[in-house]
Structure formats: C-alpha cells, structure tokens
Amino acid sequence: MNAFLGELIGTFVLVVLGNGVVAGNILKNTKAENTGWVMITLGWGIGCTIAVYISGFLSPAHLNPAVTLAMAAIGQLPWSQVPSFILAQMLGAMLAAFTTYLHYMPHWAETEDPSTILGTFSTAPAIRDGFSNLFGEILGTAILIMAIMSMGQNNLGAGLGPIVVGLTIISIGLSLGPTTGYAINPARDLGPRIMHQLLPIPNKGDSDWGYAWVPVVGPIIGGILGAIIYNIFIGLVA
C-alpha cells in the first residue's frame, strides 16, 4: 500500500506541476502566457524533482510506467508489482489532469484553439511523422533510464538523485523534446488524454487518439532498451 500511494502521489505532483506550467504558457490570459519552451522544460524538470522528493520515502518513485517496466525487465522489480505501480501512476496522472482543469477553469473559455487545449493535457508532434515521432520517444526515454541507472554507479550523495533526474528531464526537453513534446512517460500522456476526452471543456475538439499510441509505445520500448543497453555496458566494463 505504501508503494501504491507513493506512485500515485508522486505521479500526481509530477503531472499537476508539469501540465500546470504548460497550461500557464499556452492558455489565454494567464500571467505566464507565451513564456516559452524553456520555461516548460524547466517546469517539468523541477516538478519531477519535487515529485520524487515527496514520494521517494514511500516507493521507488518511478512515477512512469516506462521506468517500472524497464526495472522489471532487468530484474530490479518483481513483475508481480508492475500492475499496481502502473495503476497508481495512471490514477495519479488522471487526478492531476482533473486538478489542473479546475485550477485553470476561467481560462478554458478564453482559449478557442482545440490543439492548444489538448496540449495542456497530452503531447502532440510538431511535424506528424510516425517513424520520427516514435524514434524520438524511444531515444528520450532510453536516455532517461540510463541516467537513472547510472546513479548507483556514481555513488551520489544522499538526496541528490531527484536533482539529477530533474536535470535529465530538462536536458531531454531542451534537446530532443521540441519534436514531440517529449512525453517519455505513458501515464503522463495517456491519463490526461483520457481526462481530456471526458471533461466538459469548451472548444476542446477531439483527443487525437490516432497519435496516442506513440507516447505510450515509444517510452515503453525506449525504457526497456535503455535498461538492457546500460546493463550490457556495465557488464562489459565491470
């Protein structure tokens, strides 16, 4: 139960702060409107750091099904725990999307563009290209997983791990994120996309389910590949 709550609470904080900074940037008539991509990446990275600090004493603070599946694939998490971790992550992300909706309530009616509204919930590609979009999500998630796994090898001081994860999120966002919006986390994208479908938002349009598989499948593939590649690398140099 502690691990379930940790993953739920941590994912909630991650997504409410991450989608919150996106909403502040692109919804109409907020005080942060048009502050740009750098602000979004900083918001997601700092939000991730805070989320890991909040939840890390209850669970491993995966906060991401791609991380959970990667750890299970290399034997660092029992497969029996995977369903409960992913359920908690999905519920946390969905609750965060609903909370963000409530927080920005007056600004939905001011925003007329459906793609902008969807962008406050889930990701979308700058240029829609199936291979490129999928490859970007695979690459970004693989790098995230390798960064997470490298912490044990670098003997980080107590409490520094969440900061390194946050910096990694910022770096991936600045370098690789502009093509797809860098979901690198199936729960972060799918949970809020479901809430976008369900919530009564003015001018919202459709939830772009034709693209929704990319930010789910890509991170899962990238996470498992990243973990396997890193394990092989460590095995060769050990």
Automatic annotation (TrEMBL):
GO MF annotation terms: glycerol channel activity
Record-linked Gene3D superfamilies: Glycerol uptake facilitator protein
Span-the-membrane segments of this chain are 39-61, 82-104, 156-176, 212-237
Write down the membrane topology. Answer: Multi-pass membrane protein
List the Pfam families.
MIP
> InterPro entries this protein is in?
Aquaporin-like (IPR023271), MIP (IPR000425), MIP/Aquaporin (IPR050363), MIP_CS (IPR022357)
Q: Which GO terms describe its cellular component?
A: plasma membrane
Which keywords accompany this UniProt record?
A: Membrane, Transmembrane, Transmembrane helix, Transport
Compartments reported by the entry: Membrane
Its primary localisation, in coarse terms, equals: membrane
Entry similarity comment: Belongs to the MIP/aquaporin (TC 1.A.8) family.
What name goes with this protein?
Answer: Aquaporin family protein
State the organism of origin: Globicatella sulfidifaciens
What high-level taxonomic lineage is stated for the organism? Bacteria, Bacillati, Bacillota, Bacilli, Lactobacillales
